[in-house]
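pasting for ref
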Amino acid sequence: MDTAVSGPGLLLDTYLTINQQGFIEQMEQAEASQWPELGQRQSGDHIHTLFPELLPRIQRELPQQGADSGPCCFIEPLGEQLVIINVTKADDRTKGYALRVYPDSIGLGRVHRRQRHLELISQSLYESSLDAIITIDGDGIIREFGSSAEALFGYRREEVAGENVADIIIPPDLRQAHHTGMAHFHASGEGPVLNNRVEVRAMRRDGSIFPCELTVVPSAPFNNEIFFTATVRDISERHAREAALQKAREIAEASNKAKTQFLAHMSHEIRSPMNAVLGCMDLLLDSGINAEQQSLVETSLGAGSGLLGIIDDILDFSKIEAGEFKAHIGELQLAELCEQVADVIAVRASNKDIDIAAVIDPAIPNTVLSDVSFIRRILTNLLDNAVKFTHSGGVSLCATLGTVEEGDQHIDIIFEVRDSGIGIAEDKQQLLFREFSQVDSSDTTDYGGTGLGLAICKRLIEQLDGHIHLHSREGEGCLFRIVLPFALPKPISSQTQPLAGGPLAVVSSNPSFIQAIRRQAELWAWPCHCVARIDELPEAEAALYIIDISQALAAPQVLARQCRERGLNNDRIVLYASAFSTDSVLSATSVGFSHIMHRPLKPSSLLAFTSQGNRAGKASHAGLAPAAHSEPSRDVKLLLAEDNKANQLVAKTMLERAGYQLDIVDNGRLAVEAAATGDYSLILMDLRMPDLDGIEACKRIRAMGEPAAAIPIIAMTANAFESDVERCLNAGMNDFIAKPVDRQRLLSSLQKWLNDQDTAPQDEPLSESADSAAVMDMAIAQQLLDDTSTEAVITIMTMVLDELAKLSNSLAALDGSTNSVSALREVAHASKSSAGYCGAVQLQNFCQQLELACELLDHNQLQALQKIAGQRIGDARTAITNYIADLA
């Protein structure tokens, strides 16, 4: 027997030959064979009885060549052992195979099994992967082509093995790039697509091109050869989905844009007739109508203002949905803002006998960073909603500081809006923050509205990264809790010290008021005792007594007697009265009470009566008097460009009554022609007009030479979006007035721009004629005296002096920031009303200009007004003081 070995340490055990069908033709065995059972086989037995899987492997792997072809080596199990089988082609005559069987004395079987295991794993990856897997060599020749690749490209493995990959799956226009990349890799060892996921195009057997995601990973060098394995994922469906999503996004954006344009158009269409309606009602009030007619007109104005509120809600919501309502972060004084909102709500709730209160944690920093308009809108909407559904008791706003540590520069502030209203059933609370949803949407509901107020609140709160929760039961009122984050301009400092000087005593039968004032006292660490009647007050003397007379606890004369009987010091008694309750004030002051505090309950009002305050009464009265405007020169001529006949009539009547000359055109083209004459001091321009719109008309006027190009142009339009304001200013307009036009706002704006145009130097805010009126209009003061009494007038005038002190402080604090301007606007507005109420017309005119400059953020005008503020305030203080002295 041939004892040739196939390698070191391998001794031939058995030699046999088989034909092509696998039948044994010859067998020889070594004398010391380890497997005597092999010798029991005879010619004619089939090889599979010894090695069941050997013949198929031989037929698959042994090259179909002549007898001199190289051998193949196989590892096969024999019983419980592995044997090494060297297989060669037999001679050409037999056309069979020669098998030499060796015992595995060097452990080659274990290596083989490990290799086979890896081969099976590799094969399973190729066959089971959802992505097509292809392996090529350094020349781009395909070596492996998995079943997923067969399914993706339409080729069988046998068809593409040995072919260049560029000719099979790469589109013709990309083949040169492929060859260049391969050459670059061989030269540098780098490639732009290696180990990256890239999107490319590939080609199927039928020539169709499709997008795919390709990843190519090179192997480690083996025998100086590198292989590349590529995974290919068809992303046609993903591209189709992305295209569909992009199309849907474009449709949605177009829909949003169309909706926004529709709402802007509808705003214009609604506001234009509303301008005529409200303008005519406003003019009727000045036309000498009788008391009954005045009541009807005021009712119409109130209803029209309510309708405008609904329109504004819809517009605001559309702005939020269109992404036009963005937060603008700046400094704000949160405590002042909360008190301002409470003041506004108290005015709106004046027709209801309910208490309004603002409770503010003294630990909240004076200045925080957020969007003041967002915060104002959130609190106003929530408080308005609470007032709507509350008929007795009260509504309160409480702002407290979340958990912080000294040095923190971000804080959470918790706002709680609580009411004693009708409450909301638990099964209906989920409807509350949905758009256009109301808890009671039946035809018999007593409550109107769009169902947008709370939805807007929620959207604004979420834009500020806050959240809102509702706690309510039907019949037990509501509690809305909002948590909002605020940044700080500087690290938070230590907490406010508690108030000193004895306890606070409160007499009231209103549970809402008691709850609010107790909470405020608790935040101040101020002991507080609350009772329902004066005779229930504790014997121990209090630092301050708050007696609630807003719900007719007793007549002032009876209260005075009860206080005397208890030995209470009038200097320590503060009467808490309803807003605008002039009769209560007069009756109380007539029997000796000197300190009155009006709704709403505010920390600043309460502090004014403590030992840490100034002990000056802070009653809050709001009076309305005709605004004092300078009489325009007869040389002043205005041009109105307006296509709506009703609006033309309203504007004509308003302006001619104010003493202005007016020409009217009904389209932008005629406005351009009229402006070219240079005969006009100012142009009022509608935006939406036939033939030529207001924006284009303004651009053409600004492109003219002097004097037409310098004429101030004020937009008057029913389009109320912020983008409309920007369009007007970008076109060269000087100011913007939304319809329905407020007469005072219009006249103030005219005065501002006409003064700016006619007065030199430019930083002087008022022309000589603008302040030529007397400091005091004695006719107004005398009318007030006739309508009330000497004591009442003295009280009211004293309150105006207090307002002047606040106005001086706000002007001194003006530093150009948005927050200081906003605070000044509020004070100027209050001072304007108070001044008009008592006849201080020069001061009223000054405050009106101050308020307008704040609204327009006109810093040049504000600086000019600051220069004359001391004189205006001093003149008013002197005149009012002298008037009080004359009365006394």
